[in-house]
Amino acid sequence: MADAELYHIIHGAKGGNQEDFAELVRRYKGHVYRYAVGMLNSRMDAEDVSQEAFVKAFYSLSGLDNEYAFSSWMMTIVSNLCKDRLKKRNQEQGFRDEPDECIADSSVSDPLAKLSVEESLARLSVDHREVILLHDVQGYQYEEIAKLLNVPIGTVKSRLFTARMSLRKELAKEDQE
């Protein structure tokens, strides 16, 4: 039932119904924002990218071939915008290791632990951070991630394994400091 309802909302939004599009924004804004925060390690940049992603989606939605692929399509937009923002940031300021601010995560109660995980994630490569966020945080399956990133499933599995190992090393470093 939920899939059929979502299909009709997406179909309506494709047809230009602004209320249906507003419903899509309501349903996906948290998902999009959390992913952007994880990728960019900045609330302000994540808010900008989230808004930009929905604007881009609004103007491009008529080109979506399959309503059932909306979630993956939306995350591809967000992923590309995050990568562009990181490239621009690196060109303008050089790589920034430290987070802009401690980002609240209700699943972790110790503020120092939150900072440690986020600092460790920020130190991973963009490809590794992206696959960890998509799989371990957002809950996408290997096949969905492969399609989203346009890479083979084996590459997704390899990146996820390497990302987890790197994250463990970073967290261990932080524990020693």
How does this model look, in words?
The protein is an all-alpha fold. The chain has helices spanning 2-14, 18-40, 43-60, 70-93, 111-122, 126-137, 142-149, 153-176. Helix 1 packs across helix 2 (18-40), helix 2 packs across helix 4 and helix 3 (43-60) crosses helix 4. Residues 96-113 have low confidence and may be disordered.
**Rg from Cα:** 17 Å
Structural class: mainly alpha
SSE run: HHHHHHHH
Tally of strands: 0
Overall form: globular
Question: Averaged pLDDT, please?
Answer: 83
Portion in beta strands: under 5%
Helix content: over 70%
Catalogue the unreliable spans. Answer: 96-113
Q: Largest sheet at a glance?
A: none
Oligomer: single chain
Helices, by number, come to 8
Terminal residue distance: 51 Å
What's this model, at a glance?
The protein contains eight helices and no strands. By secondary structure, the protein is mainly alpha-helical.
Question: What descriptive keywords fit this protein?
Answer:
single chain, 177 residues, mainly alpha, 8 helices, 0% strand, globular
Helix and strand topology:
Layout: H1 2-14, H2 18-40, H3 43-60, H4 70-93, H5 111-122, H6 126-137, H7 142-149, H8 153-176
Helix pairs in contact: 1-2, 2-3, 2-4, 3-4, 4-7, 5-8, 6-8, 7-8
